[in-house]
């Protein structure tokens, strides 16, 4: 891999870390489209899942006592079952199609989040299982499985601290399962491992910067700006 590609990937990872630090979500959404274009989906997806799972681990240690296990447990179990299906799709589908699929996924959920739409029904076990199954398959195929769960959890009666803890647990565990499945299928190889190691410092420096900048920003306006930027960038990558 040439130096320019590595530097560009590092800049993308750092920007994703800053966004994640300020908004509390969006790391995978920021990284997935440009890294899929730069590195190819089969390298980008495992790298993103490694960065996201490790990033969530320290937050999970701090928030584990707030987790609503009954709510998130059903979602997580269903997701763990379908993550392998997404991984099989990543392996089987042409990389160009996968790259465009990632861009479309980001555009759709960025528009939904930008409009402030939330799930309007009552949280039910069947809904949680179905949502988890869809989200797990998305995560395995594109590295982006969080947005559907975010929209669903925000509609529940839990306080925001519990919702954040639930989401942190979901991201950490489902991403780790995704990495294991990718390794089993031979997608997470030595190249992906080294790329994860090389990009981790940039991502976590960006994350720390984002956490420090958080008090200086209007969280709502920054999220709106980030989501609009994601729509523009992903549209360009979709057409590339």
What would you say about this model in short?
The chain is built from 10 helices and no strands.
What does this structure look like?
There is one protein chain. By secondary structure, the protein is an all-alpha fold. Helix 2 runs parallel beside helix 10. It starts with a helix and ends with a helix. It contains ten helices and no strands.
Key structural traits:
82% helix; 10 helices; single chain; mainly alpha; 240 residues
Rounded mean pLDDT score: 83
Described by strand count, sense and barrel closure, the largest sheet is:
none
> In terms of per-residue confidence, which ranges show pLDDT below 50 for 5 or more consecutive residues?
none
Approximate strand percentage = under 5%
The number of helical runs is: 10
Q: What series of H and E elements makes up the topology?
A: HHHHHHHHHH
Identify the overall geometry. globular
Number of strands: 0
